[in-house]
Amino acid sequence: MTKPDRTRDDAPETERAAKKRSVHPDIGASSHAEVVVSSYTLSSPLRKPYIPDELADPTAHPEILATFEQAKAQYEAKLDALNDLCHFDYTGDWEPLSMFPGQQLLPIHDLAKTAVLRAAKSIVRLSSSLDGKPLTDCCGLWIDWSEKSKIGVVLTTAHIICTKHPTANQWKGRDEYNAEANATVHLRDGTTAEGRLLYHQEHYDLAFFQVKADLQVHLPSFNETVHCGQEVIRLGRDEKAGAMLLYLKKRITNGRVECLNPSKYERHHYMYFHHEDPNYKCKDDGGSIIGLDGKVVGLVNDHLKDSFVPSSILVKSIDLWRKFGCIPRLHLGMKFSSIKLLETTHIEKMGRKYNIEEGPIVEDLEKMLMDMCKDHFEEGNALNDKIDISELTLSLLEKGCVLRCNLKQNVPGK
Fold it and tell me: d(Cα 296, Cα 247) in Å, to the nearest integer?
């Protein structure tokens, strides 16, 4: 005959006595209180205290319960210390470490993990204030660093110093920026440093901050091209900057580059991050968009939706700023849309009516404009000088570029 399983109430007296001794200072050694304290030092194993139900009555056994509460408090303090040490969170409603924890991304899991760990080293968190009042917070990434002087440059979105955003229409140019805003850079090691604004550019919404910090800095690599449908990962850091952002509240999220033209209210160089989760939300403005090789392909610039500045614009902007201390841009007074990103039926209609089925994408146009500005400066010309764009116009027309603008013509009197 098999022996029935023993229940908790069937435990022999020796076990119950042992449980009592684990929480009662008068049972067993007289110096048990000292044993409790020493057993919860940082180097000891993590043990969760237990008290039997019959001893948990505060009126019948107040001393036992008090000792138990003391042991419980020490256990929780040690658990918190362990969590802080390892950056794990076992408290509250635990959420997945990223948007790609499950089977859906199994084919790219290793690539994604390697890419994130590589790119994460360059990402920081920034917060700003004006006249002692909090302004906003965002992410950023190191782009320059001197190991000798311990001084570097962090690139982020100009939203960090934006004080007014009265309209969603960016073309009205009504956003206001204050260069006197104070910026704090929250570093990976948990420390902070002052960020000194070097330059900001409002059309591309970029800001450069000088930061001095006594730590090791890792600079990112940039991939100068990004294409629609590309599998990418969106990175940022939380308010404490100590860990990569997690799912929803804290974010490492995977998705694709969306095949979409910007709306009529947004800058035409924007590209978009798409995630399949309809409830997906992110607050990582200024964070990095990276490819599966870990290289940066964009900088998050949240506006009406999940927009980002593509790396081709970032690379040229950084190059112009390093060489000339500014990022000039030609103002053509026109808006552009990429034929390639239009709906297929629209492209077919344009082919029927205008014999145009393809043309340069807006990203290429922006690069052409920036190259013209670079050539203009290298030839010794000054800012705000006029540039002849006739060759650019002919080049665009030859490539089938459609300009979405109002063309006005004087009509002779009848």
Answer: 20
* Rounded Cα–Cα distance for residues 354 and 126 (Å): 49
Confidence of residue 251 (pLDDT cuts 50, 70, 90): low
Model confidence pLDDT, tens digit, residues 167-187: 888 878 888 999 999 999 999
pLDDT digit string, tens, across residues 16-57: 444 444 433 333 333 333 333 344 444 566 778 888 888 888
Which helix or strand (DSSP H or E) is residue 349 part of?
helix 344-354
Tell me if 229 sits within 8 A of 199, measured CB to CB.
no
Tokens read off for 351:
């082919």
**SS3 state at 377:** helix
Cα–Cα distance measured from residue 29 to residue 20, given in angstroms and rounded to the nearest whole number: 12
Higher pLDDT: 147 or 266? It is 147
Backbone dihedral region for residue 190 (phi beyond 0: left; psi -120 to 50: alpha; all else: beta): left
Cβ–Cβ under 8 Å, residues 105 and 93: no
User: Phi and psi for 253 in degrees, rounded to 5?
Assistant: -125, 140
**pLDDT per residue as tens digits for the range 2-14:** 444 433 344 444 4
Report the share of the chain in percent with pLDDT over 90: 28
Q: Calculate the dihedral angle through the C-alpha atoms of 346, 351, 354, 357, rounding to the nearest 10 degrees.
A: 90
154/158 Cα distance (integer angstroms): 12
DSSP 115-158: HHHHHHTTEEEEEEEETTEEEEEEEEEEEEEETTTTEEEEEEEG
Dihedral sign computed on CA atoms, order 301, 307, 312, 316: negative
CB-based contacts of 392: which residues, under 8 Å, 6+ apart?
368, 369, 372
